[in-house]
Amino acid sequence: DAGVIQSPRHEVTEMGQEVTLRCKPISGHDYLFWYRQTMMRGLELLIYFNNNVPIDDSGMPEDRFSAKMPNASFSTLKIQPSEPRDSAVYFCASSPGLAGDLYQETQYFGPGTRLLVL
Amino acid sequence: GQNIDQPTEMTATEGAIVQINCTYQTSGFNGLFWYQQHAGEAPTFLSYNVLDGLEEKGRFSSFLSRSKGYSYLLLKELQMKDSASYLCAVLDSNYQLIWGAGTKLIIKP
């Protein structure tokens, strides 16, 4: 399996521009997670999906952030408009996700998208 | 609130043994994970514990005491490539994964 795939790997944009991050989870995984990581705040869960349905988006910072999962093999995280404080590494992760079974709960991370907003 | 504590940074010598501690206070407990993250890379899964005791996996072992809200990751025969951050994460009663800030491990020759 190719693992979790994310694109782009690096993104540099100007404040106010729209940014779209993409993720392809591991085939057969029912759960997909979007995280943000910064030196100051560590790893933060933004939102996660179960079978393409958003379950918990309480970590999404504000309305400028939105995420979709139109099918089992694709998800996007969009920031519009972007701000310098959004600069971070954004990770997508997936897991088989059967509650009560830690083997199934193990999350596998993509390589991340390094976002810099100027 | 939910809280996971790990030392910010540790230093050890190549060939030695190091123990990275993690204490947690969460709403419920359904398991504890350890992840390794090299600089500039994604976290990768190392181990999980759900029952008390020691789980050994080659040079790495992870211990859990649920009554004490405590875990440690033990790394033996340290190699330079073990220089990384080590993240402790707890699965709470809602099966949400709560992440610690990570421990940066520096290995010196």
Topology of this structure?
The complex is a heterodimer of chains A (118) and B (109).
Chain A lengths: L4 E3 L2 E4 L5 E6 L6 E8 L3 E9 L2 E4 L8 E7 L2 E6 L8 E8 L6 H4 L2 E2 L3 E5 L1
Parallel strand pairs in A: 2-11
Antiparallel strand pairs in A: 1-3, 3-8, 4-5, 4-9, 5-6, 7-8, 9-10, 9-11
Chain B lengths: L2 E3 L3 E5 L4 E8 L6 E6 L6 E6 L3 E5 L2 E6 L4 E6 L8 E8 L5 E3 L3 E6 L1
Parallel strand pairs in B: 2-11
Antiparallel strand pairs in B: 1-3, 3-8, 4-5, 4-9, 6-7, 7-8, 9-10, 9-11
Please describe the structure with a list of short key phrases separated by commas or semicolons.
heterodimer, A: 118 residues, mainly beta, 7-stranded mixed β-sheet, 4-stranded antiparallel β-sheet, globular, B: 109 residues, 6-stranded mixed β-sheet, 11 strands
Concise overview:
With 118 residues, chain A is mainly beta. Chain A has one helix at 102-105; strands spanning 5-7, 10-13, 19-24, 31-38, 42-50, 53-56, 65-71, 74-79, 88-95, 108-109, 113-117.
Number of beta strands of chain B: 11
Uncertain residue segments of chain A: none
Mean pLDDT of chain A: 93
Strand-residue proportion of chain B: over 45%
Largest sheet report of chain B: 6 strands, mixed
Radius of gyration of chain B: 13 Å
* Assembly of the depicted chains: heterodimer
What is the end-to-end distance of chain A?
A: 36 Å
Spans of chain B of at least 5 consecutive residues whose pLDDT stays below 50 are: none
Strands of chain A, total number:
11
Shape of chain B: globular
- The helix count of chain B comes to 0
